[in-house]
Amino acid sequence: MNPTPPEPSKPSAPENSCPFPPLPEPPSNSSHSPGQMRPTTGSLPSTQITMGGGVAIFHLATARVVLCYHTRDKYWFLPKGRRDVDEDSRSGAEREGFEESGFRARVLSLPIPHRQPAPSAPLAAPTPTSTSTATTTATTTDTPHTWHHPAGAAPQSRFNTEPVRTDFQPVGRGSATQYILHWFIAETVPPAVERECDAESTSRLARGESGYVRPRRMEAGMTLRERVREDSVQEEGGDGESRESRESGERKKGSWYEPVRHEGTAVDSEEAFYTSELVPVEEALGKLTWAGMDGVARAGWEGILRRWEIEEGWEDVEGGRGKALSEM
């Protein structure tokens, strides 16, 4: 009698497999997701509009996200708030993230589907055979832009910093003022940027100015793999070494820089009730049961996974893991 042949083994992921864990499917009966709006037509004067921004701040190297906790009302949430006058939405979201959580943050560029047009090129001189059909089609289409890009273009051309969601709600119960809140995806800053911000903040405070410093952007062309390496403490003399390691001359192999949580960043009495911590992404989804914020965190982490796949040249396979395209 012939023995039963063993089941064929599945090909293992390459050594460069994605370090970011995939997330389970969202529950189909979630009761705390925000209601979907239908497009509408209307207008409000500036006196009845308040604009704001919120952020899901990820520590990429350890697959964690910053959650705030309201110690009086007992719930978890993502940092958010009103932008200042003349402040752009992304900058306002980063600042609010810092004030409410104590973690410095900078918005990440990700492959976020959107409906915004690309920057316009100079209009070419018309020719006898030219028509305006292309322009008309581009301005009337209702198809979202996704991750398509011109052949040969760099992967970074597929990424953007658009909000992943926008919420609409009254400023307060019975209020005639409309609150419009854009949600962005951000990351904690590497140790070198943290030190830069600390130095500039100290200088500003000495001049009697606001101590908040907006972190500089991720370097153009940097990949997520390179960015994660900035937080590694494995390399001798690397920026990722902790202050204690640098002072003692010790290095902890296989460990990661821990983002700094600053104390005393609250700017009003309500924010004084907030505390915050970095929480594993999957655990955070279970804690975010207010205003559908779990959907913001999920969209952000999935965007991070997708950017990694694009930069590494991978097929979109189960769990964000699989063979490199060069091996297919």
Plain-language structure description:
- The chain is 23% helix and 16% strand.
- By secondary structure, the chain is of the alpha+beta class.
- Strands 1, 2, 3, 4, 5, 6, 7 and 8 form an eight-stranded mixed sheet that branches.
- Strand 6 (165-170) and strand 7 (178-188) form a beta hairpin.
Search tags:
328 residues, alpha+beta, 8-stranded mixed beta sheet, 16% strand, globular, disordered C terminus
What is the topology?
Blueprint (H helix, E strand, L loop, with lengths): L48 E11 L4 E7 L4 E3 L2 E3 L6 H13 L3 E3 L25 H8 L24 E6 L7 E11 L2 H16 L17 H7 L12 H6 L25 E7 H7 L5 H20 L16
Parallel strand pairs: 1-7
Antiparallel strand pairs: 1-2, 1-4, 2-3, 2-8, 5-7, 6-7
Helix pairs in contact: 6-7
- Termini, distance in Å? 38 Å
Report low-confidence residues grouped into runs of 5 or more. 5-15, 130-140, 240-253, 315-328
Count the DSSP helices.
7
User: What is the overall shape?
Assistant: globular
Average pLDDT score = 80
Radius of gyration: 23 Å
Structural class of the helix and strand makeup?
A: alpha+beta
Total beta strand runs = 8
Q: Note the main sheet.
A: 8 strands, mixed
The helix-strand sequence is EEEEHEHEEHHHEHH
The residue fraction in helices comes out at: 10-25%
User: Which percent band covers the strand fraction?
Assistant: 15-25%
